[in-house]
Amino acid sequence: MAKGGIAILYKSTLQFSINEIHDTNSERIVGLEIKTPSKGSLFIFGAYLPSDESVDNYRTELNILDALYTHYSNYGNVIIAGDLNASCLEKDKLCSNKVQICGANKIC
């Protein structure tokens, strides 16, 4: 499954039910649900967050991820992976703003 340069790959021979999540509301986020008879649902979201200088663009995508996490965590475990384009290095002001946004959204 892929969209906008992001992909989640899985083996077609897996013995699980796998469903694509279409309502991510972003070209930068893909999602899927893995259902197992014994463990329930696992939701995986792959993200490629903006790397431009706009903190507003970054915040918009992060808010979408937060909403997806909040919604789907009611139904199972959630994994968010990908290139979040954030750094914990203090030397980069934009990156430190992104880390603060991640912390405020409880993603880091």
TrEMBL record:
The record, for Gene3D superfamilies, names: Endonuclease/exonuclease/phosphatase
According to UniProt, the name of this protein is Endonuclease/exonuclease/phosphatase domain-containing protein
Query: What species does this protein belong to?
Result: Mytilus galloprovincialis
